[in-house]
Amino acid sequence: MNNCKKILLALAAVFALVSQAAVADKLRIGTEGAYPPFNLTDASGKVVGFDMDIAHALCAKMKAECEVVTSDWDGIIPALNAKKFDFIVASMSITDERKQAVDFTDPYYTNKLQFIGPKSAKVAVDKAGLKGKAVGTQRATIAGEWLEKNMGDAVDLKLYDTQENAYLDLSSGRIDLVLGDVFVNWGWLKSDAGKEFEFKGEPVFDNDKIGIAVRKNDPLREKLNAALKEIIADGTYKKINDQYFPFSIL
Questions:
Q1: Is there a contact between 89 and 29 (Cβ–Cβ < 8 Å)?
Q2: Which of 17, 100, 134, 137 has the highest CB neighbour number within 10 Å of its CB?
Q3: pLDDT tens for each residue of the chain, 250 residues long
Q4: Do domains 2-110+208-244 and 112-207 have the same CATH topology?
Protein backbone atom coordinates (compact mmCIF):
# COMPACT_ATOMS: atom_id res chain seq x y z
CA MET A 1 0.00 0.00 0.00
CA ASN A 2 2.80 2.39 0.89
CA ASN A 3 4.51 1.64 -2.42
CA CYS A 4 1.28 2.38 -4.28
CA LYS A 5 0.95 5.69 -2.47
CA LYS A 6 4.53 6.59 -3.36
CA ILE A 7 3.91 5.76 -7.01
CA LEU A 8 0.71 7.80 -7.06
CA LEU A 9 2.45 10.75 -5.41
CA ALA A 10 5.30 10.53 -7.92
CA LEU A 11 2.83 10.43 -10.82
CA ALA A 12 0.96 13.38 -9.37
CA ALA A 13 4.21 15.36 -9.11
CA VAL A 14 5.10 14.56 -12.73
CA PHE A 15 1.59 15.52 -13.86
CA ALA A 16 1.87 18.82 -11.99
CA LEU A 17 5.19 19.60 -13.65
CA VAL A 18 3.80 18.76 -17.09
CA SER A 19 0.72 20.87 -16.42
CA GLN A 20 2.86 23.82 -15.30
CA ALA A 21 4.99 23.50 -18.43
CA ALA A 22 1.87 23.44 -20.58
CA VAL A 23 0.52 26.56 -18.90
CA ALA A 24 3.90 28.28 -19.28
CA ASP A 25 3.79 27.58 -23.03
CA LYS A 26 0.44 29.36 -23.42
CA LEU A 27 1.16 33.02 -23.92
CA ARG A 28 -1.02 36.04 -24.57
CA ILE A 29 0.10 38.73 -26.99
CA GLY A 30 -1.06 42.25 -26.16
CA THR A 31 -1.62 44.71 -29.00
CA GLU A 32 -3.78 47.66 -30.00
CA GLY A 33 -5.45 46.35 -33.14
CA ALA A 34 -5.88 49.84 -34.60
CA TYR A 35 -2.50 50.69 -36.13
CA PRO A 36 -2.30 49.51 -39.73
CA PRO A 37 -0.29 48.04 -41.34
CA PHE A 38 1.35 46.89 -38.09
CA ASN A 39 -1.71 45.75 -36.16
CA LEU A 40 -5.35 46.03 -37.16
CA THR A 41 -8.61 44.17 -36.76
CA ASP A 42 -9.95 42.75 -40.03
CA ALA A 43 -13.58 42.29 -41.07
CA SER A 44 -13.76 38.90 -39.38
CA GLY A 45 -12.53 40.33 -36.06
CA LYS A 46 -9.06 38.79 -36.32
CA VAL A 47 -6.06 40.95 -35.43
CA VAL A 48 -3.57 40.94 -38.31
CA GLY A 49 -0.58 42.95 -39.56
CA PHE A 50 3.20 43.06 -39.43
CA ASP A 51 3.34 43.05 -35.61
CA MET A 52 1.11 40.00 -35.44
CA ASP A 53 3.06 38.07 -38.07
CA ILE A 54 6.27 38.76 -36.15
CA ALA A 55 4.63 37.80 -32.84
CA HIS A 56 3.32 34.48 -34.19
CA ALA A 57 6.70 33.70 -35.77
CA LEU A 58 8.33 34.24 -32.38
CA CYS A 59 5.75 32.01 -30.70
CA ALA A 60 6.49 29.28 -33.24
CA LYS A 61 10.22 29.47 -32.47
CA MET A 62 9.49 29.32 -28.73
CA LYS A 63 7.08 26.41 -29.34
CA ALA A 64 4.44 28.36 -27.46
CA GLU A 65 0.71 28.46 -28.04
CA CYS A 66 -0.24 32.14 -28.31
CA GLU A 67 -3.47 34.11 -28.41
CA VAL A 68 -4.00 37.81 -29.12
CA VAL A 69 -5.58 40.23 -26.64
CA THR A 70 -6.36 43.80 -27.69
CA SER A 71 -6.12 46.87 -25.47
CA ASP A 72 -6.55 50.61 -25.83
CA TRP A 73 -3.15 52.17 -26.44
CA ASP A 74 -3.32 54.44 -23.38
CA GLY A 75 -3.74 51.50 -21.02
CA ILE A 76 -1.63 48.86 -22.70
CA ILE A 77 1.34 48.97 -20.28
CA PRO A 78 -0.87 48.92 -17.16
CA ALA A 79 -2.75 45.98 -18.70
CA LEU A 80 0.54 44.11 -19.21
CA ASN A 81 1.53 44.70 -15.59
CA ALA A 82 -1.93 43.60 -14.47
CA LYS A 83 -1.19 40.28 -16.28
CA LYS A 84 -3.96 40.64 -18.85
CA PHE A 85 -1.35 39.46 -21.35
CA ASP A 86 2.29 38.36 -21.27
CA PHE A 87 4.05 40.59 -23.78
CA ILE A 88 3.23 43.58 -25.97
CA VAL A 89 3.83 43.56 -29.72
CA ALA A 90 2.32 46.87 -30.77
CA SER A 91 5.02 48.95 -32.48
CA MET A 92 6.03 50.39 -29.11
CA SER A 93 9.00 52.76 -29.00
CA ILE A 94 11.69 51.92 -26.46
CA THR A 95 11.98 54.95 -24.16
CA ASP A 96 13.63 55.60 -20.81
CA GLU A 97 10.24 56.50 -19.33
CA ARG A 98 8.65 53.24 -20.43
CA LYS A 99 11.67 51.26 -19.22
CA GLN A 100 10.79 52.32 -15.70
CA ALA A 101 7.58 50.29 -15.99
CA VAL A 102 8.53 47.41 -18.33
CA ASP A 103 11.51 45.65 -19.87
CA PHE A 104 12.08 45.59 -23.62
CA THR A 105 13.53 43.05 -26.00
CA ASP A 106 16.07 43.97 -28.64
CA PRO A 107 14.48 46.21 -31.30
CA TYR A 108 12.55 44.41 -34.05
CA TYR A 109 12.44 47.45 -36.32
CA THR A 110 13.59 51.07 -36.46
CA ASN A 111 11.09 53.85 -36.98
CA LYS A 112 11.19 57.49 -38.11
CA LEU A 113 8.76 60.37 -37.57
CA GLN A 114 7.60 62.46 -40.51
CA PHE A 115 4.84 64.96 -41.22
CA ILE A 116 2.15 64.44 -43.84
CA GLY A 117 -0.28 66.99 -45.25
CA PRO A 118 -2.28 67.93 -48.37
CA LYS A 119 -0.41 67.93 -51.67
CA SER A 120 -1.97 71.31 -52.37
CA ALA A 121 -0.40 72.94 -49.30
CA LYS A 122 3.20 74.14 -49.22
CA VAL A 123 4.55 73.75 -45.70
CA ALA A 124 8.01 74.38 -44.28
CA VAL A 125 8.64 71.92 -41.45
CA ASP A 126 10.08 74.35 -38.91
CA LYS A 127 8.65 76.57 -36.18
CA ALA A 128 8.05 79.47 -38.51
CA GLY A 129 6.40 77.30 -41.16
CA LEU A 130 4.23 75.41 -38.68
CA LYS A 131 3.22 78.39 -36.53
CA GLY A 132 -0.53 78.35 -35.95
CA LYS A 133 -1.04 75.07 -37.83
CA ALA A 134 -3.33 72.43 -36.37
CA VAL A 135 -1.19 69.31 -36.09
CA GLY A 136 -2.57 65.93 -35.07
CA THR A 137 -0.97 62.80 -33.69
CA GLN A 138 -1.80 59.85 -31.47
CA ARG A 139 -1.76 60.44 -27.75
CA ALA A 140 0.97 58.86 -25.58
CA THR A 141 3.36 58.33 -28.51
CA ILE A 142 6.86 59.44 -29.45
CA ALA A 143 5.31 61.74 -32.06
CA GLY A 144 3.17 63.43 -29.41
CA GLU A 145 6.17 63.85 -27.13
CA TRP A 146 8.28 65.28 -29.96
CA LEU A 147 5.61 67.81 -30.88
CA GLU A 148 5.08 68.95 -27.31
CA LYS A 149 8.82 69.33 -26.75
CA ASN A 150 9.80 70.91 -30.05
CA MET A 151 6.69 72.61 -31.43
CA GLY A 152 4.41 73.00 -28.43
CA ASP A 153 4.65 76.79 -28.43
CA ALA A 154 4.10 77.06 -32.20
CA VAL A 155 1.40 74.59 -33.26
CA ASP A 156 -2.19 73.90 -32.23
CA LEU A 157 -1.59 70.34 -31.05
CA LYS A 158 -4.47 67.87 -31.39
CA LEU A 159 -4.10 64.48 -29.66
CA TYR A 160 -6.13 61.44 -30.72
CA ASP A 161 -6.92 58.09 -29.15
CA THR A 162 -5.94 56.29 -32.37
CA GLN A 163 -3.84 57.16 -35.40
CA GLU A 164 -6.80 56.37 -37.63
CA ASN A 165 -8.83 59.16 -36.01
CA ALA A 166 -6.00 61.61 -36.68
CA TYR A 167 -6.11 60.60 -40.35
CA LEU A 168 -9.88 61.08 -40.43
CA ASP A 169 -9.55 64.67 -39.23
CA LEU A 170 -6.71 65.32 -41.68
CA SER A 171 -8.73 64.02 -44.64
CA SER A 172 -11.76 66.08 -43.59
CA GLY A 173 -9.69 69.26 -43.27
CA ARG A 174 -10.12 69.69 -39.51
CA ILE A 175 -6.35 69.65 -39.03
CA ASP A 176 -3.51 70.76 -41.32
CA LEU A 177 -0.90 68.07 -40.72
CA VAL A 178 -0.28 64.76 -38.99
CA LEU A 179 3.01 63.71 -37.44
CA GLY A 180 3.39 59.96 -37.18
CA ASP A 181 5.51 56.90 -37.76
CA VAL A 182 6.88 57.04 -41.28
CA PHE A 183 5.87 53.47 -42.18
CA VAL A 184 2.31 53.93 -40.89
CA ASN A 185 2.04 57.24 -42.77
CA TRP A 186 3.47 55.54 -45.86
CA GLY A 187 0.76 52.90 -45.71
CA TRP A 188 -2.01 55.48 -45.33
CA LEU A 189 -0.69 57.61 -48.21
CA LYS A 190 -1.04 54.55 -50.45
CA SER A 191 -4.73 54.17 -49.55
CA ASP A 192 -7.66 55.88 -51.30
CA ALA A 193 -8.13 58.13 -48.27
CA GLY A 194 -4.52 59.32 -48.45
CA LYS A 195 -4.11 59.82 -52.20
CA GLU A 196 -4.38 63.64 -51.99
CA PHE A 197 -1.73 63.84 -49.27
CA GLU A 198 2.06 63.54 -49.15
CA PHE A 199 5.09 63.62 -46.86
CA LYS A 200 6.18 67.10 -45.84
CA GLY A 201 9.86 67.79 -45.27
CA GLU A 202 12.38 65.25 -44.05
CA PRO A 203 11.92 62.94 -41.04
CA VAL A 204 12.24 64.93 -37.81
CA PHE A 205 13.36 61.93 -35.75
CA ASP A 206 15.03 58.93 -37.36
CA ASN A 207 16.30 56.55 -34.70
CA ASP A 208 13.16 55.37 -32.95
CA LYS A 209 13.81 51.78 -31.83
CA ILE A 210 10.72 49.56 -31.59
CA GLY A 211 10.70 46.68 -29.10
CA ILE A 212 8.53 44.07 -27.44
CA ALA A 213 7.56 44.90 -23.86
CA VAL A 214 7.44 42.36 -21.02
CA ARG A 215 6.97 42.75 -17.28
CA LYS A 216 10.07 43.77 -15.31
CA ASN A 217 12.56 40.93 -14.78
CA ASP A 218 10.46 38.46 -16.75
CA PRO A 219 12.68 35.67 -18.21
CA LEU A 220 10.37 35.70 -21.24
CA ARG A 221 12.45 38.64 -22.50
CA GLU A 222 15.47 36.44 -23.19
CA LYS A 223 13.33 33.77 -24.86
CA LEU A 224 11.87 36.42 -27.16
CA ASN A 225 15.34 37.79 -27.92
CA ALA A 226 16.59 34.32 -28.84
CA ALA A 227 13.55 33.72 -31.05
CA LEU A 228 14.00 37.13 -32.71
CA LYS A 229 17.61 36.28 -33.59
CA GLU A 230 16.39 32.98 -35.09
CA ILE A 231 13.73 34.51 -37.34
CA ILE A 232 16.21 37.10 -38.60
CA ALA A 233 18.88 34.47 -39.27
CA ASP A 234 16.63 31.97 -41.07
CA GLY A 235 14.92 34.51 -43.35
CA THR A 236 11.50 34.43 -41.67
CA TYR A 237 11.77 38.09 -40.71
CA LYS A 238 12.65 39.16 -44.28
CA LYS A 239 9.73 37.18 -45.68
CA ILE A 240 7.33 38.98 -43.33
CA ASN A 241 8.96 42.37 -44.00
CA ASP A 242 8.61 41.89 -47.77
CA GLN A 243 4.88 41.19 -47.47
CA TYR A 244 4.35 44.72 -46.15
CA PHE A 245 7.19 46.92 -47.38
CA PRO A 246 9.37 47.11 -50.50
CA PHE A 247 12.30 48.04 -48.24
CA SER A 248 13.80 46.74 -45.00
CA ILE A 249 12.54 48.28 -41.76
CA LEU A 250 14.86 46.28 -39.48
A1: yes
A2: 137
A3: 455 454 444 444 444 444 344 445 799 999 999 999 999 999 999 999 999 999 999 999 999 999 999 999 999 999 999 999 999 999 999 999 999 999 999 999 999 999 999 999 999 999 999 999 999 999 999 999 999 999 999 999 999 999 999 999 999 999 999 999 999 999 999 999 999 999 999 999 999 999 999 999 999 999 999 999 999 999 999 999 999 999 999 9
A4: yes
Which sequence spans correspond to the domains of the chain? 2-110+208-244, 112-207
CA 52/CA 225 separation, integer angstroms = 16
Fold held by 2-110+208-244: D-Maltodextrin-Binding Protein; domain 2 (3.40.190)
Q: What is the pTM of this model?
A: 0.86
